[in-house]
Amino acid sequence: MKILKIDHIGIASKSIDQVAPFWNAILGLPIAGRETVQEQKATTAFLPVGESEIEILESTAPDGAIAKFIESRGIEQALKELKEKGVRLIDEKPRGGAGGAKIAFIHPKSTNGILVELSER
After folding, report:
1. Which residue in 36, 109, 110, 114 has the most C-beta neighbors within 10 A?
2. Is residue 3 a part of any domain in this protein?
3. Residue 87 lies in a domain
4. Is 1 within the bounds of a domain?
5. By the 8 A CB rule, do 72 and 63 touch?
6. What number of other Cβ atoms are within 10 A of residue 47's Cβ?
């Protein structure tokens, strides 16, 4: 097998409208179209990049695959995994941050003096 090109890269999001400004205004990638796929309980937005596309996916239902994927990989799960690995945390539970984000900090003693912020929008 030889891969000839990448058709698209899918990115799960809680809200297409919330993440689209980054892709549009900052990276200059306009949304070329949206489609809701009822069977998958998801809405997709496609952003062309040369011969490939970025596909941003948003769940249309709490029990959809995208919603379940995001829920299982959110900041709470990241904090749990870090704590299990013995990483010292400033925040063991996320708190509110700018722009409605959930944030939490890793203690600099666990990162050789670097304050690391985790953020989930």
Report:
1. 110
2. no
3. yes
4. no
5. no
6. 22
Cα angle 83, 91, 81; round to 5:
25
Is residue 118 a contact partner of residue 106, using CB atoms and an 8 Å limit?
A: yes
Q: How far apart are CA 99 and CA 17, in angstroms?
A: 14
Q: What is the CATH number of the domain that holds 99?
A: 3.30.720
- Say which residues have a Cβ less than 8 Å from residue 62's Cβ, sequence separation at least 6: none
Q: Which domain holds residue 32?
A: 8-70
Q: How many domains does the chain have?
A: 2
- In the block, which residue shows the tokens 């970025």? 54
pLDDT tens, N- to C-terminus, the chain (121 residues): 898 899 999 999 989 998 898 889 889 999 999 999 999 999 999 999 999 999 999 999 999 999 988 887 888 888 999 999 999 999 999 998 877 788 899 999 999 999 999 888 7
23, 52, 94, 96 from 118: Cα distances, Å: 20, 30, 9, 12
